[in-house]
């Protein structure tokens, strides 16, 4: 059975002080969540303090992005090893905001995925179509392209440390969630593709999160879908009580 993974993605929100205060408030609220993996991806400046504050809790801390090189002349960038040292155990890669605003292609995402895994980080790799792509009937084509290109060159064994997050761009921060049926359809397609690429066992074991306007009110119906194994949550992950409700969705 796949263990559900509920992960916050704070994006460019929270100072160090705010991040620490969040964990101090949230850790007790989520301590009793059995059989659920819990994570928070946070801005780089807050990671070390966040990881220190989360130590001994069941909350994993991750980066929101990283570079593919170990070090070098890449002003403004952070390496996978630097995230590890700060206390991260995973990193979110290929988020649509990275693709949209920072020109990240699936080729770049693929280099980052390989580097992060090699450094010892788990990876949440995002995929998802825009509204125009969905309306043009290209959802499967776009999503499968993101997944196949982003994970190109990986071995089936590497997939044990990869989570795929399906985040339709039109549902991110808009309050417009994909219906459970829409999410399930795309998730099932992703799993079929993974089975073709990496074999049925690896595909069956890999977790696929849904992201896009997930809230305490709708997390239950989304999580009830057979191929939805978690949620990647932006806005509703920023308050401890809302985050705890998401984690304790059952
Ligand atoms: P919202 O939950 O704010 O729609 O953001 C989703 C997201 O992009 C998570 O990575």
Model description:
The chain has 250 residues and is of the alpha/beta class. The chain has a single domain, classed as Aldolase class I (TIM Barrel). Helices cover 43% and strands 16% of the residues. It contains eleven helices and eight strands. The protein has helices at 16-30, 44-54, 80-85, 96-101, 106-119, 131-135, 139-150, 180-198, 200-205, 219-223, 240-247, and strands at residues 5-9, 37-41, 59-63, 90-93, 122-127, 162-166, 207-211, 230-233. The chain has an eight-stranded parallel beta barrel with strand order 1-2-3-4-5-6-7-8, surrounded by five helices. Strand 2 (37-41), helix 2 and strand 3 (59-63) form a beta-alpha-beta unit. The longest helix is centred in the C-terminal third of the chain and has 19 residues, at 180-198. The protein is globular, with a radius of gyration of 17 Å. The model has no long low-confidence stretch (mean pLDDT 97). The structure holds 1,3-dihydroxyacetonephosphate (13P). 1,3-dihydroxyacetonephosphate (13P) is lined by residues 9, 95, 167, 172-173, 211-214, 232-236. The site of 1,3-dihydroxyacetonephosphate has 14 residues, from strand 8.
